[in-house]
Amino acid sequence: MGNVFKKVRDGDKLRIPASTYNAMIDAAQDYANRKSSVNTNTPQALSANIVFIKNTTGALVDRFGILGISNTELDVNSNSFKESVCFTGVSPSTASHSGGRFVVTCEPIAAGAIGRAYAAGFVVVKINVIDEAHTCADIETDDKAKLKSAESGAAVILWKESGTGDKWGIIRFGGGSAGGGDNTLWVILSKVPDEPNVDAGELTVEYAGNNTYEGRIYGKTYKPWNPTDEPYLKGEIIYYEPNNTTYKVTAEPAVTNMELSPPENTAEYLEFPEILIEHVEQNESILLKETFPIFQVGDIVRVVSRAVEGEVKYFLAHTLSNRGETETTNIMSITDASGKSVVKVVY
Q1: Residues 53-89, buried b or exposed e (16+ Cβ, 10 A)?
Q2: C-alpha dihedral sign at 49, 66, 275, 305
């Protein structure tokens, strides 16, 4: 039998044998089948960072589009479940898919069809750049065309076009601290939890104090406060070095009294800490006010960001000792037999 796939030259008469034509039809039919379903008996090999996903959004998702992961399309008892991966793709939701529960499509996927998508690795993607200083990105609810830039998120931005708005970029996601839903930051502290004032009788279970660490991303540059500058516009972030704190301009349309520092001009500036750390990373149920604060203003600490129910929260990535429940006691001074003054705690 001759070669049914023999090539022809320019000018040759085109004669297609039945075997060649049938092979072409079989190939086309196989492609059509793979676009609409995943064979439940035959394993299909893909690169380790690529998966199949079914587009259930009701509309075409173009190449480099974003789909949230909601389920698996394969029966857990089938052979294909052990040999291949096929997810159910839905419109992305911040509450359900931030922190890495999404894919970037390798090819256009029609509504109801199955296609290939990146679940990890180095990927080209469109990014809505909110701030040029952002180094991470994550999904935006109902946006199937692009990610949104952020200070922390599931994807690390390795490169992006300059400027803000919709820009092309290259990201790394799906592995390590960025892709696993957590992201490590270094934060320089501007505020620490208050220590209870024992003399004022505040060492009780009801004592509130300042319950957070606050700070800014270490190494990030800000416009420093300078009374000789042009008036700052509303929304600008200003760094005031004496107290190591950032402030947002609230004056409309701009600051009118540049000679007053941000702490002195609360009518036109609002204290605006970049990072608000509320919990200890090892145990989300422990409040910082219930621990022994060991860091002071100006210290640089390691912080883990994590998406919790669609909201990015920050956790101190250090082991802290829990104070435990405190009790109200009376402290009195008495004199022992030798005449020395001692302190006695009466419960």
Answers
A1: bbbbbeeebeebbbbbbbeebbeeeeebbeebbbbbb
A2: negative
Residue 313 token pair: 């929260």
Place of tokens 């085109």: 14
Q: Which amino acid is at 290?
A: E
Count of all residues that appear for the chain in the document: 347
Burial string for 232-242 (b: 16+ CB within 10 Å, else e) reads beeebebbbee
What is the pairing mode between strands 147-150 and 136-138?
Answer: antiparallel
d(CA 43, CA 73): 14
Pairwise CA distance, residues 27 & 82, whole Å = 25
Dihedral over alpha carbons 322, 327, 331, 337 (to 10 degrees): -90
Give the mean pLDDT of 15-40: 70
Q: Please give the C-alpha separations between residue 150 and each of 62, 66, 155, in angstroms, as whole numbers.
A: 23, 17, 9
CA angle at 52 for the pair 50 and 57, rounded to the nearest 5°: 120
Amino acid at 273: P
Residue corresponding to tokens 């022809």? 8
Query: Could you give the count of Cα atoms lying within 13 Å of 9 in the half-sphere of its Cβ?
Result: 1
Q: How confident is the model at residue 316 (pLDDT cuts 50, 70, 90)?
A: confident
CA pair distance 110, 19, nearest whole angstrom: 31
Q: Which two tokens stand for residue 303?
A: 């912080």
Report the percent of the chain where pLDDT is more than 70: 74
Instruction: Give the Cα separation of 232 and 226 in Å (integer).
Output: 10
Task: Tell me the pLDDT tens digit for each residue of 64-105.
Answer: 999 999 999 988 888 877 778 899 999 998 877 877 889 999
Strand (E) or helix (H) holding 179: helix 176-179
Which of the two residues, 37 and 234, has the higher pLDDT score?
234
Contact 251, 193 (CB under 8 A): no
